[in-house]
Each structure stands twice: as structure tokens, then as C-alpha cells.
What we know:
This protein has about 270 residues and is an alpha+beta fold. It folds into 2 domains: about 150 residues, Ribosomal Protein S5, domain 2; about 100 residues, GHMP kinase, C-terminal domain (Alpha-Beta Plaits, 2-Layer Sandwich). About 25% of the residues lie in helices and about 30% in strands. The strands form 2 sheets. Strands 1, 2, 3, 4, 5 and 6 form a 6-stranded mixed beta sheet that branches. A 5-stranded antiparallel beta sheet has the order 8-9-7-11-10.
Amino acid sequence: MQRLSAPAKLTVSLHVTGVRPDGYHLLDAEMVSVDLADTLDLDDGDGIEVVDEMVGGTGTGALDGGAGNLVARALELVGRRAAVRLVKRIPLGAGLGGGSADAAAVLRWAGCDDPEVGVSLGADVPFCMVGGRAQVGGVGEEVVPLPYEDRCYLALLPPLAVDTAAAYRAWDAGDRVDGFAEDGEGGNDLEAAALAVVPALAEWRRAFAEATGARPRLAGSGATWFVDDHDGALARRLGTELRVGGEVGMLVLLRTVPARASDGSGA
């Protein structure tokens, strides 16, 4: 048996620079690997067993080991077989690239380092194949490694999910929520569009901003909000939960990990 680690990715900044004729969006993004990770145990045989250990139980939507699972698709793409036990800790629909991280771990295990293969599974997969910290362009296949920086972020995982395709459709259509766009370095062009798709995100953003005294940023297409927490002081002060009405969002301290910790060879 071989155990693989699949670290989540955090999109620190995201700018949409254009749309290709085929409808795929061109990006200019900074991404980092963080220490929230799924685990894949690979053994002889076939089939995928999914174990739900998602942080705070905030996984939303159905996830199974069927043919549509990104792990199954990655195995098929590289012509490999394995019995996989997938322990999910990265919430679904959170903008943290959990499925992409799992697929990338399989590709690395199979000895595949071709970003074109990775991007055929998803825009975040090529970065997850490299890990660490990088500038990402094209439709995700252009990954330029950047020097590692030891950073900490406090992330809010609300009990919500955002469909990435829906967020991009809203961006294409010009759907926006006024007052939430942020331009320049560190911004996220999809933020206002994601809020148009899932308006409830706005209330979680407001509560998180009040609790931290900082301007939250959206991770990718959402639903995770995050702020800088350089010394972990916010995490110690706020604990592990944030409540909005009768619902609970989980607070998780995320630490960046270098590329060598994202190589898929260990837990």
C-alpha cells in the first residue's frame, strides 16, 4: 500500500484576463499549498472507497467513488489501476481544490508531470501537481513556481458550496453584487460573481469581517473566506466556530507548505 497526501490549494489572488473562443477563462492567479489535506491509500485492485472526514462536516453535495470522481478519471487517464481509500478532509464547493488535489496526487504517483494532462481534468490540477507557491496563467496549465513563503491564514468554512462553473457564468453575464469587488494585487475577480450566485455568502463575509477586524477575501470561486493571521492570534482568540443565525461555520488555521511537502509521497 502507498499513502499519498493531497494538500488543498488556496488562491491568494485571482484575476480573469480573458476568455478563449472555446469558452475557457484565462487566469492570472497566485496559489499556495496549505496543510489541510486529503489522504489517498492506494493498493492492488480496483474501486474507490470515500471516507468523509470533511472539516466541521461542511462537505455539501454527494461524493462517491464512481466514474465521475476525479480520482477515477485520473487513473483512467494514465492507464493505471488501484484500489483507493480516499479520506476527504477538504470540504466540497469550498474553493480549496480538494478534487483537483486528489487527481494531482494520482497523476504524480503515476509519474505524470504534464500540465496539459492535468488541465484536462481541471484548471487547478496543474498547480496541485507542482504545489508550494506559484503564479498560474493560461487556463491553469501555466505554472511558474515562486519562492516559498511561510504564511498563516484564518479560513472561514461556511455551510455553503459554490459551483465554480456557475460563478464563471455569472462573471461572463456581468452579474455582480455591488460593494464586494476588489481590484489590484490580492483581489479576486470572481468574488462579486460568486456572491451573485450564492447571496448568503455576504452575511458570512460580514460576520467574519466583524470578528476579525480585517477585510476577508474569497478563496477561488468560494465558499471559503480567509484573512491573514501571521502569528495565529486571530485563531486563538476566535476559536473554531463562527455562528451566523442558527448556522455554524468552521474556523481553520491554514499554514502554507512548500512544494516538497506536496509531492504526494507521504501522509
